[in-house]
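Hello Y.,

Per our agreement to keep a running log of every chain we model this quarter, I'm adding this entry. I've kept the format consistent with earlier entries: sequence first, then predicted structure.
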Amino acid sequence: MAAPKKSRGASGGQGKPGRSLALILIAMVALIGGMFLADQPTPRLGIDLAGGTSITLEAKSEPGQESAVNKTNMETAVQIMERRVNGLGVSEAEVQTQGDRNIIVNIPKGTNSAQAREQVGTTAKLYFRPVLTVAQGMPTPDPGASSSGKPSPSTSPSASASEGATATDKDDKDKSSTTPSATATTQGRAVTGALKADSTPSPDASTKPKTDASPSPSAGGDAAETKLQKQFAELDCSSKELRSKAARGIKPADSTVACSSDGAEKYILGPSEVSGTEVDSAKANFDQQRGMWIVQMEFTGKGSKQFQKITSKLSQLQQPQNQFAIALDGEVVSAPSVRTTLSGSAEISGSFTQQSAEDLANVLSYGALPLSFSEQSVTTVTAALGGEQLRAGLIAGAIGLALVVIYLLVYYRGLAFIALLSLLTSGILTYTLMSLLGPAIGFALNLPAVCGAIVAIGITADSFIVYFERVRDEIREGRTLRPAVERAWPRARRTILVSDFVSFLAAAVLFVVTVGKVQGFAFTLGLTTLLDVVVVFFFTKPLMTLMARTKFFSSGHPWSGLDPKRLGAKPPLRRSRRVTAPTHPKEA
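Predicted structure for the entry above:
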């Protein structure tokens, strides 16, 4: 009875290698299509290749608080700066301490890099202050025009923008479904109470206000009031330099004058009522029901008490004294108005674009640094220098690839064709994935990452060599090519997997224990190691199976790299029955 015939596909897919080749071809086409659909035809470049800006910031403590410059506060500042920059979508920005007082910020050229530099340089604390007076951002000829605290319509467009606006506590909303949504507008923006009941006792605001419900900008006497009114009348907010000058030396416990961040308005602000450190979180969201961008912020327990106290006072006043200013670095980034008492959490809504909502959320979330910083130096890496380094890296890669090709052609001859196609496949997959990972996870190609890709050429070529040598070993044992290809695969597969596992493990450990650009090397090495497994299993092995069916390779052509004579093969293995003469018992 004949033995059952073994399936040809049982030994590594000998029967239908075309399926594996079709699968990897479809994957390549999909990745290339996704790369162009995402409008990312090239990988993002890091600061050392594309150029960028390196900023050195020095920490400065408040007078009498020299101990504030410590390791804990410096690490907190680094985390806040990182979140600020990452919140703007800047790829591969690096923020790290240098020494005891300095922080180095590396911002690569690209989308939002200039905006990120401005955000990082915004190092003062965030405060919520009551608005006492508001007018247009140009000098006022007559100081008395704004002394009443309520500007005329010609000088205060924000006053008329707030008419008819209301604010509603969340608890009140829950009690009645007919309660209108809470809105209070200033310059096209509004504040809505999304309040949370907080049963945990919280301490009173640490900063005591120096003003009552009156619009007077200061309780320090007529002289101080007159001086403040004069400063307000002379204040010019038309340029960034003038706005920065007006913001210098502002103390949280004092009433002050300030400009809006765009220079359109100027304000007289009361003392700080809530510090930015009491903002627990803030984020920009798109409200599907209203079809608009909003900013939602949450306060700490202490901040809820402080915010409730100030909004309780402001809700009883008239425009513009019912506004509270969100002041960062002495500039007013937003000044919503309030019509009811708010606490716990709040929602700022109005004529936001996505960008302006995200900017305000970043300011609210990360505006409260534990220290103030001054810019010590700004160094720019030009794109020309980065281009030179990129060219040097590419030249090194080309030289390495050329040496591998020469070695394969000289030693493996026709098998070099399979190896080169496999290297090309690996290169296409690596390039497309690097391009797609840029917008997906913020991956940026730096010089160490290029080095990792060059090292990967050797790792990939090593896998081919292992397989080719196993096939040659089988031919030396006297087997023909097609059986040799299938018998060599299980042994070669184990060796390749063990080798790639060790490489990937080293890359993973390196990625975890290192920081900065070295992670680019580790990430690229790990990615190319995984791709090596994919290429060898789904491309090299099936292609080798197909090539073994061609006459050029199966006949052992001298240029195929599989010539039995050149390899010193034994005679073909043949089965033969051993015949022995019977032995007579007596002859024994």
